[in-house]
Amino acid sequence: MTLWSRHGTNFTDRLPKIAEAVCSLAADSDLIDGEAVAFRSNGRFNGEDLRQRPLEERRDALLRLVGVVDSILFSDALVADGALVFRPKLKSSA
Fold it and tell me: What is the tens place of the pLDDT at every residue in 66-82?
């Protein structure tokens, strides 16, 4: 199992906890497109701890920071029932 950056850099050794989590998935092979977030050691964003703030506030703060960077894509919020969105799809019998 290898974690690759979008530029083809091997990040497996740099992100061991994510690598371990991916290895624990019940799948023979995976291609996962995801994001990793790195917190400073004090968990603060520009001097303010946002970890206990509502998701919308945290997303707004992040968008203000990264919204002006062309190489960073900021996805729209997914508003749906998580259990429904992430429910395993059943294989077709056809």
Answer: 777 675 667 787 788 87
